[in-house]
Here is the input.
Amino acid sequence: MAPPLAAAAGAVSSSPPLFSPSSSGPLIRRHAPPSYVSMRRRCRSQPAAAAAEPSGSPLLEVRGLTASVKETGQQILAGVNLTIREGEIHAIMGKNGSGKSTLSKVLVGHPHYEVTGGTILFKGEDLVDMEPEERSLAGLFMSFQAPIEIPGVSNFDFLLMAVNARREKSGLPALGPLEFYSVVSPKVDALKMDPKFLDRNVNEGFSGGERKRNEILQLSVIGADLALLDEIDSGLDVDALEDVAIAVNGLLTPQNSVLMITHYQRLLDLIQPSYVHIMENGKIIKTGDSSIATQINEGGFKSIALV
Ligand SMILES: Nc1ncnc2c1ncn2[C@@H]1O[C@H](COP(=O)(O)OP(=O)(O)OP(=O)(O)O)[C@@H](O)[C@H]1O
Here is the structure.
């Protein structure tokens, strides 16, 4: 049986984002608005590596990647080049429809897309011919823009199956439910989630923000060498965004990496990227440090709508 993450990777929806990136008020403030300066202090676990020279080993190497919608043959990715090294945080920004989500879905092997050219190496291995579950077991994790429901499967069982699939691959003995509870419980607390969420079916009836938190719970329990986070900030209120950023920052080590897709500077303030890439028409057209996002905000890239 395919591990559950693979099932998730294979059955995602391509729903539109929960709010338009050009909308002016996506945050729902439950309390007095916290200062982003103090949020940054609490969320930051490592200094921004913007000016750092690349030093880690390459984790993901994408060269000349082209990909199309399988059903129609419509080309979406038009020659993507991207290298992510161990310990780096990358952000991809760009206007709606530029191909950001498609890139992340192609990386996890979404069945709607076909790679038509180029190469993807993950830890030196060719990813293109791997099944989605193999990619997941190899250490790739993706949080989706619109996380799916899995009726009839409790969150707890889902996480336990996923963790045990990873452990089996590493030759480790499976965890029993009691043992696993002691692993998952502190992570639920850290994300300020109600423990009752573990008993609920995966994402069933969850609000948009609860789904996003739940995806980060999956990431923190399962772990990943490279986490692809597609608009984890969409639909989160200020407190939830801070909790999620703290959790993501807490997972970062010199060995693992994050690729996040976002339209919003506020996420880059909380999870500070080593590199920011701008995507347009299925290609990365510019790469730089986080000042690129500032340039966008100041009108340097007028076609890209950002808050
Ligand atoms: N399965 C599909 N069938 C048809 N068109 C698709 C499919 N997947 C992606 N596309 C199209 O490819 C383009 C890129 O979509 P994608 O979701 O990657 O953009 P994006 O940059 O993530 O946009 P956003 O910022 O709005 O989330 C869009 O025009 C989209 O309609």
In short: Residues 4-13+48-297 form a domain with the Rossmann fold fold (CATH 3.40.50.300). The chain has ten helices and twelve strands.
